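Known limitations

Files may contain more than one protein. Parsers should not assume a single record per file. Below, a two-record file is shown to illustrate correct handling: read the sequence, read the token line, then continue until end of file.
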Amino acid sequence: MKNNKSYLLIAAVLAFIFALTPTQMLAQENLVDRLNKALNLKLPDNYYAEARKFIEKYKICQSKNVIDYTEKFIVEQMKEDMGINKQDQYLFLLSECFTELTNDYLYYGGDGNDKRYDDYLSLNEDNKWEQCREKYGNGLKAYLNQLSEEARKQSEEARKQSEEARKEAQETLNQIFDEVIKCFKLAPNDKRLEAFKPNVNKVIETSKRYDFDYKAVIHKIFGDETELEKEFLKYFEIE
């Protein structure tokens, strides 16, 4: 029942999971609880406990995005009449999804229920379960790729907005420094310059926040007036 192709899916999903923050994982009901509610159905026999153990064992089954897609997939597949007990159909579908995700399986045909096993084999004769795994795996990869692309676009947009904000801040800081330095050049001993100190301190704090080289700007404005620049830095206590 194992499918070696699922290793490719495991790698893809793990890469996505590791990019998530902890709050994006384990912050919701487990997959089986959600499915029980969505289907108004329970897994047969003791498979609920086994499924819980399975989920606890494999973190890939704890990812919110994997849970979201798997729930949607199984709910949709349960609409199909496979001619078998609905609880068993639920079990088989969940097991095939788990197999595709982990290359391990929840249902292995060894629970002593011969009717269930015969139903599984009869459907497997038409490659039903291989087709199910393939459909699930392809759909999940497409879903995660879509989420990754949306996240990339959002990140890119945030970066652009940050760059624009940084550019605007730099232009503003340039203007402020230019005006303050002009006043200082005209009257370096004027007591009225004291009033500028709080504003200059705020400008310095903002410059540091935006990683803005304020000293380079000051030096550029003063040019060759090195001594006057030193007086300015000392007067405004700029380190």
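...continuing to the second record:
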Amino acid sequence: MRLETVYQCSRCGAIHEHEDDAGSCCRPDVTEGYQCSECDEFHTTETDALNCCRDEDTPPIISPRDLERAGQLRMIP
């Protein structure tokens, strides 16, 4: 699954590929998030977007960014 960073207009909820487009949509604040590549649903975290359309039999995917926020250190070879 490939994630794409997108920007959501906080007033009307429209999704935009560029932050400037979201900012000029309704002139509100812009919410950065991620879009599920399967159903195009907007999520505020990478983990939610990665797990959006996965099978219930598949273990959840946790993004490297969320693991680091939780305290896991990144291994550098």
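Parsers that stop after the first record will miss the second one. For reference, the second record is described as follows. Helices lie at 19-25, 46-50, 64-69.
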